[in-house]
Amino acid sequence: MLKTAARLQPVCGRMEVFTAPGKPTVVVDYAHTPDALEKALPALRRKI
Q: Does residue 3 lie within any of the structural domains?
């Protein structure tokens, strides 16, 4: 099970981070309900 989990790819649109030299970092998350946004923002704050 651990071997399989290690091969999993992240879901597109879930906390996707885009960076480019000299540009601001952009994070895309598909949180489209108030509850999802309420959970996504604290998770993002912990990463930044």
A: no
